């Protein structure tokens, strides 16, 4: 059996600032303060509940002394009993009122933070999403959202009530008895809190290791499941299980260490509580023996100790949970701190209406500084015209569409629409004007109708049907048992490559944008379907500014201009006829594809 990788030993102490506690709380505070009236009312109920709670032992003391007095009167204990019951009920009443008042605040804060993180993730660049690990990010958002609720609940329902009660009890002990009771209580509290904080801080690295290994295992599992077919193709189930178990072994080691150190923390807390209770009861018992205190006073001190130490014992757990919640929230807020590589300029404007001309003006681009993809690319697409770009894989063709969508910014030159640099336009306005049929179509795990309507969510059913007909998809959908309500599965895996591509075409036709991009739009289709859809695409391109990126030259023959790219450069340009007459790279590619087509025809 393999040995688990040893985790680094945690440091002997870690200051609170290492987890950016105050920064996290400062980030969270505005979400709560929007509902300040509810917050203040809830705090008022909290104080009312604790005043009633502290009043219960005081009434109970008077009852004990009243019943033990030789001249007791029956009416006195009855009145005290009524008051005792009222105090008990008031504690519950104020507590539940606090819950009612604050419930909306907690859930709204969780919702707003989660929504902001979700929106921010969509605002991040394509580079971030190509590098991210979906499982880890989703787990961070899930834990962070849940931890906001935990943090608020623990703070309002445990920490603040306990602090209020401690203050009230210390004041009563000082006024009614002597400073000795206050000192014993304070020493116990301080010892308990210091011990809890030091040990809990020592355990933070262990808890972080549990989180990291948990996220890593979850990421690996999701990645493997998303690639289920690939795993099956290569018979690598055992390999995937071993890779997953490698992470689970690390998680097991971290979780075991977390549990054992937790036991040490609990044991130390109980020792401190036991010593404090013993010292207090010894002093109170001596007071009764000496005649300085009554039996009711003894009961009162004991009741106060129980009321203090029970929540204090829980306070240790709460502190650990709060630290864990802060760690989880910190991870989620780090997603908000991710730099938006592509952001609208402060003075960004909307794209103007009307016919649109696209210009690539001496564009340079590199994903990485040492690997240039586009080099001085220069061309224009006039309104209503179609420009096709062809070339071998890696020539930089698909990069053109990503730059036009402004998933990345050019590193040299500029891309302009009607003379406006893309960087001066609002991204939402720009992308609303562009429709794309990508080479690799990914669909939502929903119905066919939903995936087509996604091109324009407000479109009517008839418009969706019309788009499906234009993409030569309607008859196929009608042949399915559930027709348009057929679910396509995760990433559209229940559909064939050609069916997914036709859904993508229908979705783009439904959007009806002034600029169209076809990025290998018919690459997954058979020849007969390709010819049928090609006619629909050419019809859809009429009157629109269209960029066609293709490998099959037969799909670009009718383009107004064809660009041939190689190694990031435009090496040839012209119409189909002109490029064949030039007898250059385009002519060689055309002749090669024609030969391949003849050889593939049935003999």
Task: Please provide a written account of the structure.
The strands form two sheets. The chain has a six-stranded mixed β-sheet. A four-stranded antiparallel β-sheet has the order 2-1-4-5, covered by helices on one side. With 603 residues, the protein is an alpha/beta fold. It folds into two domains: 21-336, ABC transporter transmembrane region fold; 358-600, Rossmann fold, CATH 3.40.50.300. The chain has 18 helices and ten strands. Helix content is 63%, strand content 10%.
Total number of distinct structural domains: 2
CATH architecture of the largest domain: Up-down Bundle
Helix-strand makeup class: alpha/beta
Q: How many DSSP H or I helices?
A: 18
H-E string: HHHHHHHHHEEEHEEHEHHHHEHEEEHH
| Major beta sheet, strand line-up | 6-7-8-3-9-10
Q: What is the percent of helical residues?
A: 55-70%
Largest sheet geometry: 6 strands, mixed
Strand tally is 10
The CATH topology annotation of the largest domain reads as ABC transporter transmembrane region fold
* CATH-defined superfamily of the largest domain: ABC transporter type 1, transmembrane domain
Rounded radius of gyration (Å): 35 Å
The proportion of residues in beta strands is 5-15%
Whole-Å distance between the termini?
A: 59 Å
* Rounded average pLDDT: 77
Uncertain residue segments: 1-19
CATH class category label of the largest domain: Mainly Alpha
* Principal-axes shape call: elongated
Observed structural traits:
603 residues, alpha/beta, ABC transporter transmembrane region fold, Rossmann fold, 2 domains, 6-stranded mixed beta sheet, 4-stranded antiparallel beta sheet, 18 helices, 10 strands, elongated, disordered N terminus
């Amino acid at each position: 059996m393999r040995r688990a990788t040893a985790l680094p030993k945690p440091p002997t102490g870690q200051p609170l600032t290492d987890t950016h506690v105050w920064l996290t709380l400062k980030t969270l505070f505005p979400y709560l303060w929007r509902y300040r009236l509810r917050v203040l009312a809830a705090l008022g109920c909290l104080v009312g509940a604790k005043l009633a709670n502290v009043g219960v032992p005081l009434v109970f003391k008077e009852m004990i002394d009243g019943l033990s007095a030789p001249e007791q009167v029956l009416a006195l204990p009855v009145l005290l009993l009524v008051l005792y019951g009222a105090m008990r009920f008031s504690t519950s009443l104020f507590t539940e009122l606090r819950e009612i008042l604050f419930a909306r605040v907690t859930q709204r804060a969780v919702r707003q933070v989660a929504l902001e993180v979700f929106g921010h993730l969509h605002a991040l660049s394509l580079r971030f999403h190509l590098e991210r690990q979906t499982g880890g990010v989703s787990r961070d958002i899930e834990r962070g959202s849940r931890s906001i609720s935990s943090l608020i609940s623990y703070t309002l329902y445990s920490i603040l009530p306990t602090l209020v009660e401690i203050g009230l009890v210390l004041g009563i002990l000082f006024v009614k008895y002597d400073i000795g009771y206050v000192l014993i209580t304070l020493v116990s509290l301080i010892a308990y809190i210091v011990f809890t904080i030091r040990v809990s801080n020592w355990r933070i690295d262990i808890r972080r290791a549990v989180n990291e290994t948990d996220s890593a295992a979850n990421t690996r599992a999701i990645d493997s499941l998303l690639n289920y077919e690939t795993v099956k193709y290569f018979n690598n189930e055992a390999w995937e299980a071993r890779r997953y178990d490698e992470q689970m072994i690390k998680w097991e080691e971290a979780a075991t260490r977390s549990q054992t150190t937790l036991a040490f923390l609990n044991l130390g807390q109980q020792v401190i509580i036991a010593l404090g209770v013993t010292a207090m009861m010894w002093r109170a018992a001596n007071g009764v023996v000496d005649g300085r205190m009554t039996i009711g006073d003894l009961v009162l001190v004991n009741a106060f100790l129980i009321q203090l130490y029970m929540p204090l014992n829980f306070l240790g757990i709460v502190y650990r949970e709060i630290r864990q919640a802060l760690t989880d929230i910190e991870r989620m807020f780090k997603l908000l701190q991710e730099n938006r590589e592509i952001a609208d300029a402060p003075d960004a404007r909307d794209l103007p209406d009307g016919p649109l001309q696209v210009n690539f003006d001496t564009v340079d681009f590199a994903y990485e500084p040492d690997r240039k993809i586009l080099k001085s690319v220069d061309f224009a697409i006039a309104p209503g015209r179609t420009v096709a770009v062809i070339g071998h894989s890696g020539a930089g063709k698909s990069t053109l569409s990503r730059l036009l969508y402004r998933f990345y910014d050019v590193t040299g030159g500029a891309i302009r629409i009607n003379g406006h640099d893309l960087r001066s336009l609002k991204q939402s306005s720009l992308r609303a004007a562009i429709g794309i049929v990508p080479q690799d179509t990914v669909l939502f795990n929903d119905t066919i109708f939903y995936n087509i309507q996604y091109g324009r969510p407000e479109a009517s059913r008839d418009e969706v049907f019309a788009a499906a007909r234009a993409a030569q998809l309607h008859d196929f959908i009608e042949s399915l048992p559930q027709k348009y309500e057929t679910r396509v599965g995760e990433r559209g895996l229940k559909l064939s490559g050609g069916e997914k591509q036709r859904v993508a075409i229908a979705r783009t036709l439904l959007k009806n944008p002034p600029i169209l991009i076809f990025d290998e739009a018919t690459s997954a289709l058979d020849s007969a379907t390709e010819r049928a859809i090609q006619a629909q695409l050419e019809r859809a391109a009429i009157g629109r500014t269209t960029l066609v990126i293709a490998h099959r030259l037969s799909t670009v023959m009718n383009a107004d201009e064809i660009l041939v790219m190689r190694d990031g450069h435009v090496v040839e340009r012209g119409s189909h006829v002109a490029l064949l007459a030039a007898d250059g790279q385009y002519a060689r590619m055309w002749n090669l594809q024609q030969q391949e087509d003849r050889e593939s025809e049935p003999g």
